[in-house]
Design goal:
By secondary structure, this protein is an alpha/beta fold. It is built from 19 helices and 19 strands. The structure holds zinc ion (ZN).
Length: 492
């Protein structure tokens, strides 16, 4: 038996918070065992030559919706496969009870084991879940979820309040399968999460993620858009304008401050939304607020998509905005305001996108182009340093969601999760090459420069030059890791 299972030779390694270094990496039993200027190839069972390429930490795509519109196990298989294409080694997926997903409600003590059994053996990447407590009873399961089930992050949807309170209120409660899903519920949830965050502050971060859009304003703006007869993605953006995000961000920040709950503001799509997040941090300097943006809000604009006739294939919440907004998001990355970049991946076939503006389902996939878009639009075009990109998609999500330093880190003992990148490969995005079950992509025709040639999960080369090369071996990771995985010393 040789000293290393795999050695990555001749590459330039991108260390988060540090920079690029020419070095070689030895991997044993799925972990990083050696980082050295040179490792003898004879010590390795297998050698991966990364000459002329960059060795990045595999991405942690921390915003995903496995199973939202398709059977859970099937979706886990195809959508963790597409993640490998984008250099992703770990998926953190959202789950909630109510309409879509498993289409049921009840205690998470019963439903979460079901989700985990539907997941087991079906992921190519490692995976975790963020959970949205929707009912009053589920609020009392937060402690159990953290301490027993390995859930370190929760979610609240600000705009579902409208679905509960809609004039057609039966429809609303049918959607969330809950009552009183409002700011009162949010306050109760933040109180519960805050207690856990305080109790486990020394082992890892426990937090609440928020989808910030205000439903009362959306109701009014939808009416206006209908009266004005607007069409396309422009209409959808104007029906849910940036003001609705700004208002919700401030509401969330006020309640987070009152309860001491660490929060993550998800998919800030516009100048107003990101600025509100930045202002909230400034207003509450001692407060723990993280800011997320998505690939599609960075790289797409509705004017171009409408010109191309993409239609509702580009429908997503919050909506795609204009170039002016995406430039502000890039500026937020450059200035260090943005903590994470994600795909908000939700596999949604074209059949669900043909029912007009209001009835078509929101969301689409993008995990397969997480690194490619950031490298192309960020590193090549806007000169954002490579280590900063590794922080946005790997090290920061690992820290924020309680996975660090098992994931998101290139250190001895960390999981050997990498993606090897050829910065010079230029390709046009097509739905076929992304290996997803989704039969279209709003990124179709987008030219990206900088693609993964290999993606490695715990030392296994899962993806190699366009092909998946290994069986599914993804593991569920309990978080925060320091609470659920005792070190060998402590175990003795
Ligand atoms: Zn989402």
């Amino acid at each position: 038996m040789k000293k290393y299972d795999l050695v990555i030779k001749n590459g330039t390694v991108v260390f988060p918070y540090h920079g690029e270094t020419r070095c070689e990496i030895g991997i044993k039993s799925g972990s990083i065992a050696c980082i050295s200027d040179e490792i003898d190839a004879n010590l390795a069972e297998e050698v991966l030559d990364a000459k002329g390429k960059y060795v990045f930490p595999a991405a942690i795509d921390s915003h995903y919706h496995v199973g939202i519109y398709r059977p859970h196990s099937e979706d886990a298989e195809s959508e963790s496969r597409t993640a490998l294409v984008g250099g992703v080694g770990t998926i953190i997926s959202y789950f909630r009870t109510g309409h879509h997903y498993l289409n049921k409600t009840g205690p998470y003590r019963e439903i979460l084991p079901e989700v985990l059994s539907l997941s087991q053996g079906h992921f190519y990447t490692d995976y975790c879940y963020h959970i949205a407590p929707m009912t009053a009873d589920q609020l009392d399961e937060v402690q159990w979820m953290v301490e027993q089930a390995g859930i370190a992050s929760f979610k609240f949807y600000m705009f579902y309040k409208g679905l509960t309170l809609a004039a057609d209120s039966t429809h609303g409660s049918q959607y969330t399968m809950t009552e009183n899903y409002d700011l009162g519920h949010l306050y109760e949830l933040m109180t519960r999460v805050s207690v856990m965050a305080e109790k486990y502050r020394h082992v890892g971060r426990i937090s609440l993620s928020l989808h910030c859009e205000n439903p009362e304003l959306i109701r009014v703006f939808i009416e206006r858009v209908k009266q004005e007869g607007l069409t396309g993605l422009k209409a959808y953006s104007e029906a849910r304008p940036p003001l609705t995000e700004k208002l919700s961000v401030h509401e969330a920040a006020i309640l987070a401050d009152a309860t001491g709950c660490p929060i993550n503001l998800l998919h800030l799509s516009s100048r107003e939304a990101l600025q509100a997040g930045i202002d909230a941090r400034r207003n509450y300097p001692n407060h723990d607020i993280k800011l997320e943006v998505t690939l599609h809000h960075l790289a797409l604009d509705y004017e171009e998509l409408d010109r191309k006739g993409i239609g509702m294939k580009g429908k997503v919440n919050p909506p795609i905005r204009t170039k002016e907004h995406s430039e502000f998001l890039w500026e937020g990355i450059r200035k260090g305001h943005v903590d994470t970049v994600v795909s908000d991946h939700a596999c949604c076939g074209e059949e669900h996108k043909k029912k007009g503006i209001w009835e078509s389902l929101p969301g689409f996939g993008g995990s397969s182009i997480l690194y490619p878009i950031l490298l192309s639009e960020g590193a090549h075009k806007r000169k954002i340093p490579l280590h900063r990109i590794a922080e946005l998609v790997s090290a920061n999500p690992a820290k924020i969601f309680g996975l660090y330093p098992k994931k998101g880190s290139i250190m001895i003992g960390s999981d050997a999760d990498f993606t090897i990148i050829d910065m010079n490969v230029e390709k046009t995005v097509t739905a076929e090459e992304l290996l997803s079950a989704q039969d279209h992509t709003p990124f179709e025709g987008f030219i990206a420069k900088g693609w993964s040639t290999q993606t490695i999960v715990r030392g296994k080369v899962m993806f190699d030059n366009g092909k998946v090369t290994q069986e599914k071996c993804g593991q569920f990771i309990k978080r925060p890791i320091a609470l659920h995985y005792k070190s060998e010393e402590e175990g003795k």
